[in-house]
Amino acid sequence: MWPFNKNEEKKRGENRVARTAFRKYKSKYEKGGREIAIYEEKPGKKVEQNNTLIDRSRHLKEFFAAVTRYIPAGKSAVWTWKNLCMSNARIVYTGGSDKQKEMAAKEIEMLGKRIFPIKTSKGNGFDKLLSAWLTGIFRYGRFAGKIELMPGLNGIEKFKILDAFKVYFEKDTYDAYYAEDGFEAVEQNKNTFYYYGLDSDSENPYGIALVEAATKLMQIVNEMFNDMRLSSSNAGTPRLHIKITQPEIMEDENLKDYTERCNNYFGDTVDGMAELAADDNIYTWGDVEIKTVGGENSQGFVWKQNLQSVQEELISAYHLFPWIMGKQFGTTRNWVAAQFDVLMQMVQTMQMEGAAFIDWICNTHLALCGLAEVKVTREMQPPRDIAARDMAMAEKTRLENTEKKMKLGFMEVKQAAREHGYEIVEKKE
To answer: What is the signed CA dihedral for 319, 321, 322, 328, rounded to 10 degrees?
Structure first.
């Protein structure tokens, strides 16, 4: 609920929310060649570091960014989560008169064109802001920002995205502070400041990043890839091993001549092998053996198993399943359907949080515009249900079975309607 003093609301056709929720001080603003006094937000009090709750993930910001940018499984997980939650949506207006709803729709449309801070990015500003929100949540486990108001506090100008790792929460009160430079943490206005932490609680209001559960795992991944590289360069490349049987010494042949003959024979064989073209064949006496060494199939299989285990753990840290990221690790179709239901429950939870964020911005803007009676709700459409066809076929089979029971006299119409959750509609003559 917006904590304004309703007794101080100003009337101008429709209710306009009072400005007392913002700390006020006068400043000069030029308009039409003249200077007028406007209200701006006054900086709040500061807090000492020892009076804030400990954030155990603050030093892992660069690690979170690196995993989700340079590790394929981490990048794919964030991309997958964001696109799962970014389903189609529509804005619903409730309360107020038809004229007020029409005015509210125009205000929200104009706000959507300027709300996103990156002006070179075209398209719906609310969708892009929600996309940035989802990226921050799934990459860092937190998102922070604040709304910037128009001169005169008659609406929202834009939303400013802040570094969520510079937010501090005071002990006991849980008041939010933001440190712009160094540790000069300044208290934030609850009516304009926004912060969301994934899986936050009273002990850790900062939130927990999904990949935080895999910090030790990533060290293993780095070592494994390095070992794979070295192993592939050494034993992973197949090579020819040529064995030349040492010739026997001849009668009346001294040691010097014998050694020279062996070396010449060995050198001639090596030179002949070195000059082989791709379509040439090898002709030798029976004293030459040629084998292939290195690059055995078992070596690649071991690395594949190890890498698959690491990927499964990393995907689990992101609360996803291998098949959703295009990796088939032997999951059956029935198990996939069960996992899909769990996944959609998590998607709907995140969609509710994201929609609440957009609703807060829109309703705040309408309140400042004098349209406080109109409320905005962003309704997110759930992703396509892969089990919808199976459920429809099952319902069809149930109805056919019920119909047969009725024809055989095993069931009355009223009983059949109750079993299927329907009410009997009397036909009008």
So the answer is: 170
